[in-house]
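User: Can you recover a sequence for this backbone? Please restate the input before giving your answer.

Assistant: Of course. Working from this structure:
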């Protein structure tokens, strides 16, 4: 039973929520919390301001009543008591935007009540003369019969600089702070802010979530093997735009790799099936006695040549895989580059198939020592030369020139072949990529240039296509060298 409860709780915790709903809820919650805090602060400030304003207004009204009382020229307490105060202010509460009316008193100099506008105090009540004589006009009191604080606002009634009595306003704190209309206005304003804020959050979250949702749907398409996706890139947010563009590039790249993988499988099948079929047929003919003597020997030689081709293709696959996983270390040694190029050219031209190729080498004016794995550099150059020879046919010519700058040495290999189709040039260093010409004229898996570039980069160098046109193609091998080795 406990296990079942924990499993349900875990499922609820791990439950995924759509992006728009997730952020809308959180933004809305943040907005509500913020508005609640603003509401409490605003309500406190309104109450405080209402209290201060009404006390100041009561002070002004008390001053007015005192002046009006003096204008009737009272000469004694009886004249002060007979003053027709209600003619001055019959409804003081409406002037202060209050639902209740403050109590108004006229007292003598000792605090005895001579007049009050409403029976708010018990008979015989007398104000403390000590409080009345204080300099401050507003005093907060706590009367015995009241549970709430009471504010007393007083103004003296003086005739010929002689204190005749006091005009006193008396009101509880709660009515002075009562601001029901202001509260209604505040709640309407807060409600409107909450509504418009939520709408803004919803619209913004929807706008932000839509491109991300589209990317998620596109990812599902790619997951199902459909790389032909459509994503709108007319977004103004930089990060979202970069996400969409990166995803589109990734999708295009995956589509290209999928195409290359399909072509690779077809190529491997074709390239291996052809020599296997040939070898099988030749050996079967010898085995069945269809051919004998010198002809049988020739059949066996052809079978060995086809076997060598297969072995070379398998070696290419293994070598590429080893380099791609960084498990093949380089054996770096210092070599004079002029001598290295000369030796490799001599070895390559000793092969019978290469003797017809015209090669000229433009050496460096001064010897340059480079720290390289000679065997791997030879692999790069031999691959470039073989490609150049295949692109030209019988009248093949290869031009090799060496140049250097402050940090690198460049080896340019130029042929006079038909060139590489412009549409294929961006992909020549891709793994397993084979152009249309190579697909029809040569065998292999399309790993030569990709493998060569990997070897160059392993030397902290590079292999680049400089130019290719109908008049020829130029590749450039760039290798670093140290000034220390050349001192």
């Amino acid at each position: 039973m406990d296990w079942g409860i924990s499993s349900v709780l875990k499922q609820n915790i791990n439950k995924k929520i759509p992006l728009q709903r997730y952020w809308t809820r959180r933004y809305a919650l943040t907005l509500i919390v913020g508005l609640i805090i603003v509401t409490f602060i605003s309500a406190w400030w309104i109450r405080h301001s209402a209290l201060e304003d009404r006390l100041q207004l009561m002070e002004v009204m008390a001053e007015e009543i005192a002046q009006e009382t003096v204008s009737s020229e009272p000469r004694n307490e009886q004249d002060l008591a007979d003053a027709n105060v209600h003619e001055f202010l019959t409804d003081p509460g409406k002037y202060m935007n209050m639902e209740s009316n403050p109590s108004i008193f006229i007292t003598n100099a000792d605090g005895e009540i001579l007049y009050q506008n409403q029976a708010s105090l018990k008979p015989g009540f007398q104000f403390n003369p000590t409080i009345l004589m204080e300099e401050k006009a507003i005093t907060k009191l706590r009367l015995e019969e009241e549970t709430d604080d009471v504010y007393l606002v007083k103004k003296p009634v003086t005739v010929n600089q002689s204190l005749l009595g006091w005009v006193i306003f008396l009101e509880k704190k709660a009515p002075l702070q009562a601001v029901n209309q202001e509260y209604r206005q505040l709640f309407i304003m807060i409600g409107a802010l909450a509504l418009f804020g939520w709408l803004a959050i919803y619209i913004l979250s929807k706008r932000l979530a839509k491109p991300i949702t589209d990317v998620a749907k596109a990812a599902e398409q790619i997951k199902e093997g459909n790389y032909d996706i459509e994503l709108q890139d007319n977004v103004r947010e930089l990060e979202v735009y970069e996400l969409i563009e990166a995803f589109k590039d990734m999708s295009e790249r995956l589509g290209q790799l999928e195409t290359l993988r399909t072509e690779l499988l077809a190529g491997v099948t074709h390239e291996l099936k052809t020599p296997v079929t040939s070898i099988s047929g030749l050996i079967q003919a010898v085995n069945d006695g269809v051919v004998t003597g010198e002809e049988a020997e020739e059949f066996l030689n052809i079978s060995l040549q086809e076997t060598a081709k297969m072995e070379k293709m398998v070696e290419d696959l293994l070598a590429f895989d080893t380099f791609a996983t960084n498990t093949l270390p380089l054996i770096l040694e210092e070599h004079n580059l002029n001598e290295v190029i000369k030796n490799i050219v001599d070895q390559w031209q000793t092969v019978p198939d290469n003797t017809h190729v015209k090669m000229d080498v433009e050496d460096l004016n001064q010897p340059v020592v480079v720290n390289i794995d000679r065997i791997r550099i030879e692999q790069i150059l031999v691959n470039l030369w073989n490609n150049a020879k295949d692109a030209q046919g019988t009248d093949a010519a290869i031009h090799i020139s060496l140049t250097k700058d402050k940090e690198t040495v460049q080896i340019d290999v130029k042929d006079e072949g038909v060139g590489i189709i412009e549409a294929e040039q961006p992909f020549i260093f891709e793994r397993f990529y084979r152009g249309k010409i190579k697909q029809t004229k040569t065998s292999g898996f399309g790993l030569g240039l990709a493998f060569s570039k990997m070897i160059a980069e392993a030397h902290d160098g590079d292999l680049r296509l400089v130019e290719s046109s109908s008049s020829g193609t130029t590749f450039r091998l760039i290798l670093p060298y140290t000034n220390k080795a050349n001192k």
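That completes the design. The chain has 13 helices and twelve strands.
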